[in-house]
Amino acid sequence: MLVTARLKRAAELLIPHSVRARREEERLRERALAKEERRLARVAQRRAALLESDPGLRSYTVEGAERIGRVVRDYTAAGAADRNLDLVLRALDHAGIDHFVVPGRSPQRHVLGVHRSRRKDLLEAMRELHGDSPLYAVAPGPDGKAAKASAYVDGALDTEVKSGLVIRFAELLLSEHEDEFGGFDHGCDVEFWREATKVLAGDRAEHALDRLRVKIPVGAMDGALLGPRPNRIADVLTTDARTPATLTVRGRELPTFEPFSHRHPEDVGFPVDVVYTWVDGADPAHAAKRARHRGEVVDLATHAANSSRYTDHEELRYSLRSLRMYAPFVRHIYLVTDAQVPSWLDTDAPGLTVVDHRDIFTVPDALPVFSSRAIETQLHHIEGLSEHYLYLNDDVFFAKQVGAEYFFHSNGIVRLPFSSHQIGVGAPIAEEVSPNWAGKNARALLMEDFGATIAQKVRHAPLPQLRRVHRELEERYREDIERTARSRFRHPDDIAPATTLHQYYALFSGQGVRGKYRTRYIDIGTEQARENLAELGLDAPFDFLCLNDFDTPPERQEEVAEMLRDYLERRFPFPSPFERVDVLIGEDDPSRTEVAA
What we know:
Blueprint: H1 2-14, H2 17-53, E1 57-62, E2 65-71, H3 77-95, E3 100-101, E4 111-115, H4 119-130, E5 135-140, E6 146-151, H5 159-162, E7 166-171, E8 173-174, E9 180-182, E10 188-195, H6 196-200, H7 205-211, E11 225-226, E12 236-237, E13 244-249, E14 252-257, E15 272-277, H8 284-294, H9 315-326, E16 333-337, E17 352-356, H10 357-360, H11 372-376, E18 388-393, E19 396-398, E20 414-416, E21 418-422, H12 434-450, E22 456-458, E23 463-466, H13 467-476, H14 478-485, H15 497-508, E24 512-514, E25 519-523, H16 529-534, E26 544-548, H17 557-571
Parallel strand pairs: 2-8, 4-10, 15-16, 15-18, 16-17, 20-24, 25-26
Antiparallel strand pairs: 1-2, 3-4, 5-6, 5-7, 7-10, 8-9, 10-11, 11-12, 13-14, 18-23, 19-26, 21-22
Helix pairs in contact: 3-4, 12-15
């Protein structure tokens, strides 16, 4: 046996060095591969055990990578961020680690600051409390997106993640369809702040100083804490600035430092309400009333009163869901109707008021009207409505978390949602789309008063409104406002008080500036609508969707309604507090269709 081993070693010495090196490399690679296979097997066992222990968890795949998330029956983007904040706060309190709120640069997540020396303690506390859970630790990239994620259930965290100066902690939240709503973007970021003296004594001191947004003399940094990245106030906290303070975060008091405890100049501090207009054209009483008055109009354009304009696909149900999911700043919702209420709506729900046309029309003999243009002339008369509000049609949906700052500057100036589409020139043409009519009529009024022409339409989005602008319009263009208010159906002589006229008047009068809106409009009655909807996933780069039924042929209405409902139920699956629990989707309740006169 000894001789055989010697002969083998001798034979190996005769093999060329390059061959021996290659074989050794192959052996090392095989060992590494075997080691990785054993690790993956352990990971698979841990994940399987976790999934078996908690029926609320699901395994799913994103871009080829397996993830584990928790199925939830209720979801808001702000709530997802709060949930992850709670997970981190529990660990910080458990380990007795001092921490402070940092004014982060994204509204999607919370940020906490911790001394760099306590990073290991925090990681150990997170492991102790959440090691057998679907919690992830994430290394954020420069754009704030997840650069690398490591699941606690898999064992040791990735070195790049756990050694970072910023670690994001997140539990992923899924709908019952296993779509990921609460992703890594809503995790809680923990920044590890370092002593300036230690940073300045290091080899990369010059690089660290260059990255700071706050520039102060080096001599003034004695005792200061340095943040690992910019925030909204300061990434340098000198000793004298570290006066303890508290900050109310989503209804709870959290520790911070005095410079971080104030409202920022960009933050909107005034209330913002939402106004919806809604109609159920299938209601027999409303349809009969509409048909009766339609016979009185002789010059009605074919699209001015088509059935699609009054068809209800329960879009309002899903628009309210989207508002609750993504617009936590809204104070109150007003639903304006013509003696109707959706059968599924809980009219007693806090935060919601149903308003009848009769309650707001200052020209009551104009009623009934079946034109949104006419209704828009009166919305600012709603009792209790905030000075700044959003006007929505029920086919407009929030698709990403936004704040009031998306629509208004903190000084009250409106961010105007102009479109790239144009009104056109010349006089209104009978069969052109009605926004062209209203835009051309508004142009004539504004040209006379401001000496400038207008060209662009307004986007299909939540439309920011100022009550004082509407009061000015009502006073300045009284004849045009009253004529439009008396227009039962859309007419080429109408103006559009909430869209073209309001937005451009605000611009010309110094009460508004151009804003940036990311919107997607789809006419659901077109042949390509199904394909277009399929492209509107949760990661689509739009903040608002408009799914408009412009003129669906009667023979396709059932098909289109089913397509739209399937999409909306998957995109906005979480019932809002405004829905009655005893009325299912698509179910009618005749007792709730009409509001008693």
